[in-house]
Amino acid sequence: LGPLKRTAYLHKTGARSSEIWILSVQIKKKFVDSLRIEELWYGHDWKAFVWHCRKTEIPPASYNRPWKGDAAAELINGHICRNTSKLIANIKAENVQTGITDANVLTIDNDHFKSTQWYFVGLEVMARFNVEAKGKIHIEFSPPENSETSTHAPLDTTASKLTSGTKQQE
Questions:
Q1: Average of pLDDT values for 128-136?
Q2: Angle, CA 55 vertex, CA 39 and CA 79 arms, to 5°
Q3: Of 107, 59, 62, 65, residue with least CA distance to 83
Q4: pTM > 0.85: yes or no
């Protein structure tokens, strides 16, 4: 398994009482290469950005990042915070830089690899993404461990819903 798939399975094993949905999306490299990409790795800005987002606040304009305007990021690539929103949001503003540590970054392979995620920004980019991904999405659904149902089904992007608890052929 590649690092992204291992990250998904790490989330899956840690959520025994929750449903897990792993979405695999096939998009052309040409589409990704056409986007303005910003990277946000673990560090001062990442800590502040995660803290504001987990508090459901818009990060302050003082960020020295092109989040807005003509050069706005269309794709943000960065590390994943492993902790719940409640835990991070409860950190006081003056303690963000010391309260969020390297231990808050989701890692795999015995902590040798920091997991990453992509975040597509803006309605126009999301609309373009939808066109690129149409018919190229696979969903792997795992119910809570105490459930007896399992679904592994490719997503028909024209369908209005998936029926949970039914088995379909892959």
A1: 93
A2: 25
A3: 107
A4: no
